[in-house]
Design brief:
flat; single chain; alpha+beta; 6 helices
């Protein structure tokens, strides 16, 4: 869903045309009026760090089938990636709201169901068009990151509508990343309560520090305090990230 930048630069700069010029009238044989170009800078700051280290005693490492280095680093990496996912989804206050009024229901939070999930998808695509995002929609596609229960409703809708598509959904179910109703659909268990992420893909920007992401460090006999060392080994990794919702395109990403 995000435009991900792997960089060792702390501040990743970009800019946008913050004042839209207006078309002017022109008469034959006369001069034309120039419009002023106004550019505003924006910065993606990779400054938020999280880490995870696990200490294992040498005896446990030798005896336990669950404390092998490869398995430990797999788990550490999975947990750090879950943090990144939850951090992105927690940015819902930076996005444009879509509520019940957007799909013909009462204003306020939408209760997603198999009866209205298609309305939510269509309303989101309509909002993108109304916000002049059709070019980006055609270029990047539209995505939804549902909650697990919402994805179940999408599966129920797919199984109940159409012919070939419904038969396939009945036989195989829906898998994450499926393209359906003109959009790509994912799910996550890391949403902030009552919020779902949707909109044009690759508008929300995520910066990841290349120098720390995915690096696995093994520290033998780590320090216990200023005078002692622990009899074992530490397995350690960290991530450093930053976010940016471009001001010019905030109307293309949604908090549903």
């Amino acid at each position: 869903m995000c435009d991900v930048a792997y960089s060792n630069t702390k501040l990743v700069s970009s800019s946008y045309m913050s004042t839209t010029p207006s078309v002017q009238s022109v008469s034959r044989g006369t001069g034309h009026s120039m419009q002023t170009f106004v550019e505003t800078a924006e910065t993606l700051d990779i400054a938020t760090g999280r880490d995870l280290g696990l200490f294992v005693d040498w005896a446990d490492l030798a005896q336990s089938p669950w404390t092998k280095p490869a398995e430990l680093f797999d788990r550490i990496g999975a947990l750090l990636n879950e943090y990144i996912e939850s951090a992105v989804l927690a940015r819902h206050t930076s996005w444009t709201n879509i509520d019940g009024a957007s799909i013909g229901e009462a204003a306020g939070n939408i209760t997603v169901s198999a009866q209205n999930i298609d309305d939510i998808i269509r309303a989101t695509r309509r909002e993108i068009r109304e916000n002049n995002g059709n070019m980006f929609m055609n270029q990047n596609g539209v995505g939804f990151v549902w909650r697990a229960a919402d994805f179940e409703f999408l599966e129920a809708f797919a199984q109940a509508n159409g012919f070939v598509g419904a038969d396939e959904a009945l036989k195989k179910g829906l898998v994450e990343g499926i393209h359906y109703l003109g959009s790509d659909h994912y799910w996550s268990n890391d949403h902030t309560a009552n919020h779902v992420f949707a909109g044009v893909k690759k508008i929300e920007r995520l910066g990841i520090l290349k120098g720390t992401y995915g690096k696995a460090h093994t520290i033998e006999f780590p320090a216990g305090d200023s005078n002692t060392y622990l009899s074992g080994v530490s397995f350690y990794s960290r991530v450093d990230i930053g976010h940016l919702t471009p001001t010019a395109h905030v109307g293309l990403v949604f908090d549903v």
